[in-house]
Design goal:
Layout (H helix, E strand, L loop, with lengths): L1 E5 L13 H7 L4 E4 L7 H6 L5 E4 L12 E2 L2 E6 L2 E6 L10 E2 L3 E2 L5 H9 L5 E3 L6 E6 L2 E6 L16 E8 L2 E8 L6
Parallel strand pairs: 1-2, 2-3, 3-4, 6-9, 9-11
Antiparallel strand pairs: 1-12, 5-6, 7-8, 10-11, 12-13
């Protein structure tokens, strides 16, 4: 199973303004996970032209009835691997900090994540800071895909940003970041 993880698209208007480079990068994935700050629901409709989407609300995102957009956290089962999704790792309290590295309070990450997601998770996908990150901590894989449309400070002004891919096969997980490149005119 191949999943794409994106966050912080911050689309305005109808939500159908995602760059073609992003849609092309999403082709062939089985599922898109959006970690919030989409701004308008049309973003999810646009992404669904490529693959099914599961999302969580960011700070000021609209609400939607149904299963596609969860309130603050969600847990997705992908071939027996549990993926916890949250927009801001600090929610509901400053338990985890992110500043190029992850900083955890005393105790085990498993217990912190159990409180956050209501169950243990194998992977945590988060957004908010617009900076890409993949790293393991106490046996849990943490992924921040950055932002495909509003990249963080590590990128040159006007650049497209990043997304992440998760590959799961027979319970084995691999993750990779992809920098989007502008399609030549």
């Amino acid at each position: 199973m191949r999943l794409a993880v994106i966050s912080d698209t911050h689309e305005l208007g109808t939500g159908w303004g995602s760059p073609p480079e992003l849609l092309e990068a999403l082709r062939g994935v089985d599922l898109i996970l959006h970690c919030g700050d989409l701004e308008v629901l049309g973003v999810l409709d646009h992404l669904e032209t490529v693959a099914p989407v599961l999302a969580i609300r960011g700070h000021k995102d609209p609400r939607e009835e149904g299963e596609r957009l969860a309130e603050r956290t969600r847990v997705v089962d992908a071939e027996g691997v549990t993926i916890g999704m949250v927009h801001d790792l600090m929610w509901p309290a400053p338990q985890v900090r992110y500043n190029d590295t992850l900083e955890f309070p005393p105790g085990t990450v498993t217990e912190i994540l159990r409180r956050k997601f209501g169950q243990p998770v194998d992977i945590v996908c988060f957004g908010d800071v617009h900076e890409e990150f993949i790293g393991w901590y106490q046996g849990v894989l943490f992924i921040n895909p950055g932002s495909p449309t509003h990249p963080g400070l590590r990128h040159a002004r006007g650049d497209l940003g990043t997304l992440a891919y998760l590959n799961i096969k027979n319970g084995v997980v691999s993750a990779e970041l992809r920098k989007l490149r502008r399609i030549s005119q």
